[in-house]
Amino acid sequence: VQLVESGGGSVQPGGSLRLSCAGFEYTFSDYCIGWFRQAPGKQREGVAAIESDGTTRYADSVKGRFTASKDNAKKSLYLQMNSLKPEDTAMYYCAADYDCRQSFNPDYAPFVNYWGQGTQVSVSS
Description:
The protein is mostly beta strands and 125 residues long. The protein has strands spanning 4-6, 9-11, 17-22, 33-38, 45-50, 56-58, 66-71, 76-81, 90-96, 114-115, 119-123. Strands 2, 4, 5, 6, 9, 10 and 11 form a 7-stranded mixed sheet that branches. It has a 4-stranded antiparallel sheet with strand order 1-3-8-7, with no helix packed on it. β4 and β5 (45-50) form a beta hairpin. It is globular. The model has no long low-confidence stretch (mean pLDDT 93).
């Protein structure tokens, strides 16, 4: 599995970005997929996770602003980010094959089986 993210960039506070991730295998719909982020000097943290049945979970810090979605036919994952804040600045990674229920456990990232290479999101005025 080689996951590839795209869509990062630099925006002003209040702006929007849409991240995409491709490269999932044929069993795409059978496992947990989602997004993590890592700011300099901080642990990698879960942002959003989508269960195989479509149930979507979000970190409290992004609820109401970020929307994760997937397209089973295209085997792609997306993250629509609105009302971006400077504290959203981080490298964003798509992830696959892990326990969605543990997504927001701050120590869980090492247990994720597949990662993309990351895409940088910078929010500043």
